[in-house]
Amino acid sequence: RAKAEGRGCYRIFTAAMDETVKVRGAIEEELREALATGVGLEVAYQPQVAGAGKPIVGLEALVRWRHPGRGMILPDQFIPVAEQTGLIAQIGELVMRDACSTSRQWPNLFISVNLSPVQFRGEGFAERMIQIARENGTDPRKIELEITEGVLLDDEGQTAQTLKALREAGFRIALDDFGTGYSSLGYLHRYEVDKIKIDRSFVNSLGKEDSATAIVSAIIALGQAMKLTVTAEGVETQEQERFLRSAGCDELQGYRYSKALDREQVARLLDPTPRLEQRSALTIAPST
Ligand code: C2E
Ligand code: MG
Ligand code: MG
Ligand code: MG
To answer: Which of 154, 164, 148 lies closest to 197, judged by CA?
Structure first.
C-alpha cells in the first residue's frame, strides 16, 4: 500500500514538473520571439520625487511584457526565466537603450536601470553599457544603475572591477532593496555606491511595527553619515511620507506619487501642453 501511495505521489510530482518545464519552455520561446521581432517588451517609467510636493527628479525604468495572449506580464514572472536562459543580457540591453532615449528626452532627470546579477557578470558587461550610452548620445552621469545584493554576492574581484569601470564612465550606482540582504552593511563598506534605496517592505511596515521605524531611521542616518542619497521605495500613504520626510529621506518613490507609466503618460506629466484657452491667450497677447 505504501508503495502504491509512493508511486501516486511520484506521478503527481512529475506531472507538476512537466507542467513547470513546459511553461518555462513556452515562456523562453515567446521571449526569444519578442526579442527577435521587437514586439511586446516595453519599458515603463516610475517617477521619483525630491520629497513631498517636490518636483520629479528621476524615473525608474521597469520592464513590461505585453503578451499577445496573456496580457501584461510583470518582471517577477519572466526575469527569472530570462536569467536561466541567458536572455537577460538582451533584455537588459533593450531596457538600457530605451532608458538612454528617455534620458535624451528629459535631460534634467536621472533614469534608473535595474541590473540582474546574471547580466552584470556577463563578459564585457561594463563596456557594453558604456557603448550603448555612447551610441545613444546619452551622458552616463544621467543614468543610475540599480544593483542588489545578488550582484555583490560573488566576489572574485570581478564585481569590484566592473563597478569601478561603470563609475569611472560616470554611471551612478544605487543599492536597491537595501536592508533585505544578508550583508548590506558589509557591501557599503566594501564598494563605493552613490545611493541606497530602502526596501519597500520596511516602508510598508512603518507605523505597524516598531522595528520598521527603527530600521528606516537607522538606514537614513547611515546614508547621511556616508554622504549617500537615500531613497524610499513603495511610499503609499501620507503617514509614511511624513515619517520619511521628518527622518530626512532625500527621495521618495511609490504609488502615492505615481505608478509606472508609459512614455506618453510621462510626457503628459512632465510637458503638459497648454490648454486651448491658454494657447490662444498667448497668441493674442503680443498684438494687444
Ligand atoms: P524594484 O527594482 O525594487 O522595483 C520596484 C517595484 O515596486 C516595481 O515593481 C514597482 O512597480 C513596484 N512599486 C513601486 N511603487 C510601489 C508601491 O507604492 N507599492 C507597491 N506595492 N509596489 C510598488 P515591478 O515593475 O513589478 O518590478 C519588480 C522587480 O522586477 C523590480 O523591483 C526589479 O527588481 C525587477 N525589474 C524590473 N525591471 C527590470 C529590468 O529591466 N531588468 C531587471 N534585471 N530587473 C527588473
Ligand atoms: Mg529597482
Ligand atoms: Mg527595490
Ligand atoms: Mg526588487
So the answer is: 148
Using a 6 Å cutoff on CB, does residue 177 contact ligand 1? yes
Cα separation, 249 vs 191, in Å, equals 22
Going through the chain in order, the beta strands assigned E by DSSP cover 41-49, 56-67, 71-73, 110-114, 143-147, 172-178, 195-198, 229-232, 251-252
CB of 95 closer than 6 A to ligand 1? yes
Type and span of the H or E element at 133: helix 125-135
Q: Please give the grid coordinates belonging to residue 92.
A: 537588459
Write out the residues surrounding ion ligand 2, Cβ under 5 A: 114, 146, 176
- Predicted-complex ipTM score: 0.98
| Cα–Cα distance for residue pair 251/234, rounded to 1 Å | 12
pLDDT tens-digit readout, 196-244: 999 999 999 999 999 999 999 999 999 999 999 999 999 999 999 999 9
227/219 Cα distance (integer angstroms) = 12
* Ligand number with the minimum distance to the CA of 76: 1
Q: Whose CA is nearest to atom 35 of ligand 1?
A: 75
Q: Please give the Cα distance from 101 to 133 (Å, whole number).
A: 9
Whole-prediction pTM = 0.90
Per the listing, cell 512614455 goes with: 263
Identity of residue 12 = I
Residue whose CB lies within 8 A of the most ligand 1 atoms, among 83, 100, 114, for a mutation test: 114
DSSP code for 58: E
Q: Which residue has the cell 536601470?
A: 113
Q: How far is the CA of 176 from the centre of ligand 4 (A)?
A: 7
Grid coordinates in use for 256?
502615492
Distance 24 CA to ligand 3 centre (A): 25
